[in-house]
């Protein structure tokens, strides 16, 4: 069991200012996401221009990269999100370890809002939720009236990147968020869902076993059979060896414990699951979602499977359709 103690926890993410919201709690390092180079669009753009120019890229290519950045992250969108959404990062303790997390929520709420726990992909520092990924993937959902809470997982943003167990004790970092959620102003604690991407889908199922009150799940490009996935992507074994404790001595058991398709019966039959996957995914085989949907059907767990033709791991060709599915799913089930 994880230990998570917060004394006089009063997360009051104010509804009047996205930048200067007052937070009184025993959480540490509570800061606005709109800080440093992200305090204004102009400073972010300038930082990106310096980055592209300093990498030895010829001027024409650097300008092309900057143009791509400005196309994906427009000044209009930045200013809109900043005016409508509060975004804060914080540090919390789990199992005696400092873990970094974040919360994104509408500044003005007309009623108590449902919560989505977002579980990121990647491992260690790779895949950490930085400002750009928040703006691209999470701000649009929060704009729809959801409060989004997430963990970076233990060890992320630290020099000694050796705490992430890829579905081991780091799952406690997600479960511990349930102690934080009731203290966020304006949330409906009875309407909490989970959204996981890639490895984050594995995290979602592992956490959902411990939190049966989760109302709905969405998984994008999720891995559910780690052993079989090695046949599709053998180089993942490097990650497993580096991250998973006892992997060398107990490989099958460790992979099985992290493979949701092996313990479908432990998932709640009251929690519907949305599965989204691209059929050209080179990182996680689409067969994970196909087989998992079949297993969920056999276990009489409600689910919806959508496979996007000719799309990749990040579903870049269907971004709008994916967002519409996610938004509609959580609006319907939370």
From TrEMBL:
Gene3D superfamilies: alpha/beta hydrolase. GO terms for biological process: proteolysis. Residues 135-333 form the Peptidase S9 prolyl oligopeptidase catalytic domain. Residues 1-20 form the signal peptide. InterPro entries: AB_hydrolase_fold, Peptidase_S9_cat. Keywords: Hydrolase, Signal. This is Peptidase. It comes from Pseudoalteromonas rubra.
């Amino acid at each position: 069991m994880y230990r998570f103690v917060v004394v006089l926890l009063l997360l009051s993410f104010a509804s009047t200012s996205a930048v200067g919201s007052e937070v009184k709690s025993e959480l540490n390092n509570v800061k606005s996401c709109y800080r440093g180079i992200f305090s204004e669009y102009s400073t972010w753009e300038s930082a990106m221009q310096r980055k592209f120019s300093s990498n030895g890229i010829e001027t024409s290519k650097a300008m092309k990269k900057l143009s791509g950045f400005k196309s994906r992250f427009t000044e209009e969108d930045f200013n809109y999100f900043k005016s409508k959404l509060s975004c804060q990062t914080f540090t919390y303790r789990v199992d005696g370890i400092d873990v970094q997390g974040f919360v994104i929520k509408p500044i003005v709420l007309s009623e108590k809002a449902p919560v989505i726990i977002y579980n990121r992909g990647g491992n260690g520092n790779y895949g950490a939720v930085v400002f750009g990924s928040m703006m691209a993937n999470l701000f649009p959902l929060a704009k729809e009236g959801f409060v989004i809470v997430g963990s970076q997982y233990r060890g992320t943003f630290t020099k000694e990147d050796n705490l992430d167990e890829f579905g081991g004790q780091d799952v406690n970092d997600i479960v511990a968020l349930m102690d934080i959620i009731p203290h966020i102003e304006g949330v409906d604690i009875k309407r909490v869902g989970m959204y996981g991407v890639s490895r984050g889908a594995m995290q979602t199922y592992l956490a959902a076993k411990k939190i049966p009150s989760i109302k709905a799940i969405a998984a994008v490009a999720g891995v559910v059979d780690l052993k079989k996935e090695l046949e599709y992507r053998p180089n993942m074994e490097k990650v497993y060896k580096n991250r998973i404790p006892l992997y060398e001595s107990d490989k099958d058991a460790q992979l099985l414990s992290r493979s949701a398709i092996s313990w479908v019966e432990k998932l709640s039959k009251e929690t519907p699951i949305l599965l989204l996957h691209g059929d050209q995914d080179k990182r996680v085989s689409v067969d994970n979602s196909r087989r998992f949907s079949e297993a969920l059907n056999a276990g009489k767990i409600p689910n919806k499977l959508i496979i996007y033709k000719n799309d990749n791991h990040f579903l870049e060709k269907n971004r709008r359709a994916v967002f519409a599915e996610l938004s509609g799913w959580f609006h319907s089930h939370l």
